[in-house]
Design a protein that fits this description.
Layout: H1 3-20, H2 25-31, H3 36-43, H4 46-72, H5 76-86, E1 105-106, H6 107-124, H7 126-130, E2 142-143
Parallel strand pairs: 1-2
Length: 144
């Protein structure tokens, strides 16, 4: 085996270990002495790319293991992150937004709605009115 081939194998192994340790592929290439073009060419090799993908999965697994350890020590942020992502059917971030507005309805507005409803009845019959959905009105007062 020539030194060039051996050096290339060592560089590739080092590259994969760097990616598994969290170094981005472009930075791992620089650390092993590759140009960006050489890094791109090496990553174009499907077998090598598969090893790099596996290294990235190892990194994710390591991060998950750390997250679980931190969560088990009682870190609320880690607990929340873990549960939201691993059990989203039972744990999800629910935000409730309540909107309140003081709106005054004038007699003219009521008359306009009444006129529109009567016109709708004349043109399309009762079926058209039944298709409409009534909104929830908690409190209203007529202002003259």
């Amino acid at each position: 085996m020539s030194n060039v081939l051996f050096d290339d194998m060592v560089a590739r192994e080092t590259f994969v270990e760097l990616v598994a340790a969290g170094v981005s592929p472009i930075n791992a290439g620089i650390e092993v002495g590759w140009t960006p073009r050489q890094t791109k060419a090496n990553l174009a090799d499907p077998e090598f790319q598969e090893l790099v993908d596996f290294a990235e999965q190892r990194l994710i697994g390591s991060m998950e293991q750390t997250l679980v350890a931190v969560a088990q020590r009682g870190n609320v942020a880690a607990l929340t992150l873990f549960l939201f992502n691993r059990a989203p059917d039972r744990w999800r971030d629910i935000k409730r937004i309540e909107v309140k507005a003081d709106i005054k309805v004038t007699q003219g507005m009521v008359e306009a709605v009444k006129t529109g409803a009567l016109e709708l009845l004349r043109e399309h019959g009762v079926g058209a009115m039944q298709a409409l959905e009534a909104g929830d009105i908690e409190d209203a007062e007529i202002v003259e």
